[in-house]
Amino acid sequence: MYNMDHPVLELRGVSRHYPGHRAVDDVSLQLERGVLFTLLGPSGCGKTTTLRLIGGFESPTGGEILLNGARIDARKPYHRNVSTVFQNYALFPHLSAGENIAFGLRRRGARDLERRLAAVVELVQLAGKESRRPAQLSGGERQRVALARSLVLEPDVLLLDEPLSALDPKLRRQVREELKSLQRRVGITFLLVTHDQEEALSLSDRIAVMNRGRLEQVGTPEEVYLKPRTRFVAGFLGAVNWIDDVGVRPEATRISAAPPGPEVRSVAATVESSVFLGHCLQVRARLADGAAVVSEISRLGGSFRDGEAVHLWWRPQDELRLPTETE
Amino acid sequence: MTRLRLLFLAPSAVLLAVLLAAPIAIVAVSSALTRGTYGGLGLPWTIENYARLLDPLYAWILLRSAALAGAATLLCLLVGFPMALFLTRAGRRRNLCLCLVMLPFWTSFLVRTYAWMFLLRDTGLVNTVLQSVGLIRDPLPLLYNDGAVVLGLVYGYLPFMILPIYAALERLDPSLAEASADLGARPWTTVTLVLAPLAWPGILAGCLLVFIPCLGAYLTPDLLGGGKSVMVGNLVQNQFTNARDWPFGSAVSVALLALVMLLLLTLLRRRAEELL
Questions:
Q1: Nearest by CB: A77 against B178, B189, B194
Q2: Cα(A232)–Cα(A228) distance, integer angstroms
Q3: Does domain B47-275 have CATH number 3.20.20.70?
């Protein structure tokens, strides 16, 4: 029933310009069917606007949006087979959880409403809570109602705007796992927006990193973390030590008291302080030129005294090599 | 603290006592007195004035008033809800539009009602224009009928419908309407299934704010209805002026007040039950 020649969703040079501000600037993307794709970037980078352009709540000022190869950018939200899970869930407060979930099915006049409703309620584990109003549900339950309300419509793409940000931090990790396994089970393409790099890395099949309305890099979590194409991507996905214009992640920066062998790169430094983080030891050191470097080493590798003269070293393949940027 | 609170509450308490409670008390007392020989009030105490209210003539006037006020309220709602919705989406022009809604308040209600007479009468603007473009030969009977009264009431009380509905819609999360559209609802469905139910307190407040003053209106039916279209407000006015029957006028006023209070209490109780 699908035309498999096309990506399920494609953005071709999509822009949303406001007077004096380019919220989204020439963004091109392709989403393969069934993937969990993440738009990652700091607040104000245009990721939510991109999601709203796909959902149909805003109109692009340029470019094309295609769903299964057909242009949808001029269509109203109710004529697009995509569905949004809003950041605050936007559940209808006057309707029960069950009626919230049935809302879209009723608009479509679905004949097997009861069966589909029961199936999705089972899927998101809300059985027995259908008659409750949103105000009587916990944050996690509300999120599942919002998910169910969209999933039950079997959209071509499910758009999720910061789906975990409204949750209690302790709940977030658990819901993250659930979200990923849910996506695997239903097989629906998810396009998720987040500013949390850990969330993006742990959830996604592919990540698009956005900055100032533009796409900086698109790739797998490993690619964007290990082979960032810009300093912004390198820095946004995790801490980087910049040593002579070479980037090294803290966990790839090792320490030894004796000079290391010639097969690795190294630099002399002085230990400034150590912090015990449980799963690792975070050592702050200073180079001769005054630059600060952070190294995260296993606590099993021993510890270093403050003021101790050491050698920092890393393997050449762990270096982040980036083109010099003019900014 | 309590003393300070009393001090600050005192002015409004005095104002309410002198300007609201006392007049109502006077009216209530006079409704139970007998009409003097040359008008005015006299003894003995009686319930005769209330008994007269049972006369079908007066029941009919009350019913007519309720019907006209109801029609005006319904029309205000039909016009006011879309306008309130438009206001919430007017973006940068919102404040200007709000000012336009309230602009008529800057002129006397009496003057504005006279302006309607100039528009609607046989030689008025509407008839003159329609005649000059040849759409009609004889002037349409636009003035001095129930239609003119309802029109005048809608015109006069529309802002009281728009503002509370606007306030209720304004408070709603904009993503609710977006979610509704996202799930496949056309704009009309979004209004009927999401926005109107959620703005219900504002709609109810607007309807009360229009219906209650319309029920007691006397200026509009007097001027635009031409005396033919008597509403309960005109009945009261008549008893205090031409008929010189203050006790009966008071009794009609008290009955009207009681009716409105009953309506309010019923609605408020239902609202409280809904919230529980």
A1: B178
A2: 8
A3: no
